[in-house]
């Protein structure tokens, strides 16, 4: 045990008592100064303080399931406290002890509290009735500790009288506790001393039961820890742990491992092996004596109290060593290397590493090498060791132990740097050794900085972590590529494609690219535990209590909270895969929407943004604030319900329609003012007008009307002004509108007659001028002295462009992707992006093809064809005995070896393989012998393209002619006696082509179909089959293609006859009938039948038509066609005669001659195509097959060679 | 230990990043690195088929044998027959064997490499191997690389392997050795071409070099591994990295990939591109040769008349 990991430390007065909360990260500490502190040790904060005791508080305990705290002090009092955050207070106080209270504890199921005191008694209290229900007497000195057994009704106590006592308290359960206090005598009946354990030479400070085994340990002032075992009848001392050199204050069992932890006044915390009672580890403190020790009931966590505070510590690292490769996590649990497949969830042990390093220490890191399927582990015990082991290929039976063939060596940090190299750091000598897989050093590197840890840095590179920086270091050149300043980096995580790396320190994450030229730093206040990359390029990490995300540019936020730390391994969509503290794989489902949304925003991937807006319920101030802050107010607009915010956003992004709408809803002057201002800015004077109208800003309205040339509105404004009784406004409007009469009227009304007169006069309105004079009781003569102003020369400005009904060009920006998309109203329709239109259109086709394929498979069983006759071949003919041995002597100078293509031709009897090998001559011979092919010209493209696709060229070195590399069928096969060329034409592909032909038939594209079927038959010649099933399938494909080719050819001939020799009805009818005889699939057969019915009905052969109709009905056509067929049958019942006599005997079995399209009845002689087995009349023997145009009819052939 | 610049130059040369080498500026003439960098830069030019620049790059009156050899090699590549150039190279090879020659061991090695390459191109296999010191104790990793490729081209992976194993005894664990190992792996196909695949994958991830050649090489490796789809994407990326321009090697590989993929139509288009742009590429010459051979062979079979019904 070389580590004691301090998780938390606090400074305070001397700590006398400690208690862990069973579920929350809380620790209660009672102090010598009378205070009881409640710490959150994970966050490192003091949560609360309980200060009602007078004098030191030595005893403290937390209830295992309820929010209760109990304390006991030197004030003789026992206090019970409510721990719930909202009402932390003392619930009640138990009085009774007559001296200092040393320990207290809750019972795990009964409402009991046990306490012990310097008054030499142990008391048990009922916390419900708040009475003392038992007093255990017998100790003859201070009782230093008294604790319940975790399950049984037992109590163990330790006392200064040098004894440890075990008490039986089962009596308490049976009898109702005596409620009358003070009747001590009765108590003793319930509780009896079961064992008195004598052996310590001094006072005993602490004694505790083992959680599951019948064991007790006690810690005493004789500097020993004694281990006691008990049976039903007796208890005895087993052994003692010696090593403390002063009083041992306390000793506890490790909750999970076979260890004892103790502390004492010698300022040490010591760890002991429970089985061997030997010291495992010692942790010293300079000045502080340890007084108390507490272990967490569930976790690998301890707390120790000393003179100046407390520490919380772990005994071993919980972080499991793991490495991720693809979707598989390789990790270590309980000293076994295991693999966990993220997709299937299969979790299997691969290798035992029990003998690697100290048995108490788990391996620290694991590096995985997929090429060699090897793991490289490091462990911190024994000053650091590494071990390289290959994972076993098969993992049946007992797991291999790595000590069998593992290669070990000293080193603090070791990782694979290439498929056959690994690097080991020796921290003390500061030397990095690069080793090959045998462990031999091939290179030594002196790192340029004090290196604490090394990580994989990409090809031929290392990342070196020092105290203040990380260095990217090139191994080959032995130089620093670049350096980043960071706090000490503890872990690194590369993303999937190796373009980015996250460097994790205690409180920071640095995200850098692979050359360290760009980086962002994130700071966390809480300890960072682990991280993993999302497929989209988001870094997801875990802290002690959160899962968080970090975007490439540094934005980060919380995804969810955690109860316990986890170690993230892989993020897949919504699933976070992680290992928990006991290294068990588990998953957490998260909602990635928020970070996906932000990522999409950053990457300007608006389709994705829209999709997320539509499909998820993103809400909340944070998103809105984020959007606004990042300059996307228009998107934020869509999230906001609150009208004020909505208005603000609308103004900000210039969305006037929304602004108007919300302004109406709010209806406050300042809104209208802002709206008007924005509207004017964007030149939308109509909205500005509306806004002015709303707030009755007549002056601005008038001026706006003037500016836009809206004279009729100005007239209206005059009227409004009149109604308002505002002459100034009237005058204004009249002036704007050029309404002289109006102006005069206003002036007269307000009694400014001289002005009215002059206005009239200067505008040539003599009548009105006179009228004014008259009304003023004057004549022209009275005003002789007024100079003549002449005619007013100012005109009303003309309206050049009537902008009244136009909206001026708006400022750009209002119209964005989102406005368009969101305005289209397709917010609800939600089509996932990336779904191209092409996909939709092709769906129908795919469905069709699917049907076809099902038909195919369903039907093929029906094709009753004999394969056997052709399946057996003459494999011996071409494939001579292949020499297994490379006969040539090695080192025979530079004599050229055997070309792989030559080996291919040796290894295969298939023509296609010979073509691949470029041996056209033998390929042709094979085709001729196997299938009787004679007309090769049309096969040229197949030969050339097959040959072309079987070889590739690469020149690894400059200026040398490239190497010809041969593509093999099975890349895993490298034995020359078995290598074969790649199958350029695979049966599967050809069958796809065939179904394309079938589709063409359905679509009535017969010439195309004919070409396709021919090409299928040509391709099939080049297929090499590897199994009997494949050979069978091959034969079936050939037969299907032949039948279709024949059928299509007959139908084409019928159409030709109908076109060119319309008088030859008989031939037409015959061909139609033969067509129905081809072995087609039901859908196509139905087409043939319907065509026959039609042709025969048209020719007046209603009897025969009815026969086809009956056959059609057997084929289960769709209802409409079925009813048509029934009509035909009915018609023939009325008139069952045939007008034209044809040569068609449906009752005798026949085949159709593929050249003349005439029947060859059973028993008649025929010749066959050596390849497709199509039948021909004997007269065609020796001619070229008209169907395939490849073979000589009737030629002798050996057929497809046996599969290999 | 050689300087960083030279290391980088060599690394890029071996990994086929010729374009970036061509753009590399030369150090000062007095620099120790001047000759080596010039040597590799010139060879990068040659690898790209640009022999004219080489002539201008290398001073005509150079006394340095390695540079002389490169210049002659450039002449050999550019002239169709090139016998004179070959003779000159032979002379140079003899010259470096002399006692009083003014050339370092390294330079002598370079002369051998260049001459060996030329002889290999001229199909003078034996002479090439002899020059390169194959099967001898010469410690020249580059010569080993060339020799190995020659062995591979004459279908002697066994000898290639031996040469490689021998080199491992003395050579430093370096890039070139890994390259040799991967080339052998490509031919032998051990462990599903794992050596080559890992090597090229590692080098693609190498931050200090970027070369479309590596992508092409991995594409070819993936073709051999039967990963046609992945191969295609590698090759397409290689093309993209060259700004949409196909080099002969990538284009040839794309033809093959298309021919093995699902969309065969593309193959013909790419093929006609390749055949017209690079008529001298071995794939083109091989296929064209085969097409001619086909025609010759096809007429050996007598084609009977088509079956036509008489009635």
TrEMBL record, chain A:
Its main location: cytoplasm. It is a peripheral membrane protein. Residues 853-877 are annotated as: Disordered. It is found in: Cytoplasm; Golgi apparatus membrane. WD repeats lie at residues 8-49, 50-84, 94-135, 136-170, 197-231, 241-282. GO terms for cellular component: COPI vesicle coat; Golgi membrane. InterPro entries: Beta-prop_COPA/B_2nd, Coatomer_alpha_WD-assoc_reg, Coatomer_asu, Coatomer_asu_C, Coatomer_complex_subunit, TPR_COPA_B, WD40/YVTN_repeat-like_dom_sf, WD40_PAC1. Residues 853-864 have a biased composition (Acidic residues). GO terms for molecular function: structural molecule activity. Oligomeric complex that consists of at least the alpha, beta, beta', gamma, delta, epsilon and zeta subunits. The coatomer is a cytosolic protein complex that binds to dilysine motifs and reversibly associates with Golgi non-clathrin-coated vesicles, which further mediate biosynthetic protein transport from the ER, via the Golgi up to the trans Golgi network. This is Coatomer subunit alpha. It comes from Lactarius akahatsu.
Automatic annotation (TrEMBL), chain B:
InterPro entries: Coatomer_esu, TPR-like_helical_dom_sf. Gene3D superfamilies: Tetratricopeptide repeat domain. It comes from Lactarius akahatsu. Pfam families: Coatomer_E. Belongs to the COPE family. It comes from the Eukaryota. Keywords: Cytoplasm, Cytoplasmic vesicle, ER-Golgi transport, Golgi apparatus, Membrane, Protein transport, Transport. The keyword Glycoprotein does not apply. This is Coatomer subunit epsilon. The coatomer is a cytosolic protein complex that binds to dilysine motifs and reversibly associates with Golgi non-clathrin-coated vesicles, which further mediate biosynthetic protein transport from the ER, via the Golgi up to the trans Golgi network. The coatomer complex is required for budding from Golgi membranes, and is essential for the retrograde Golgi-to-ER transport of dilysine-tagged proteins.
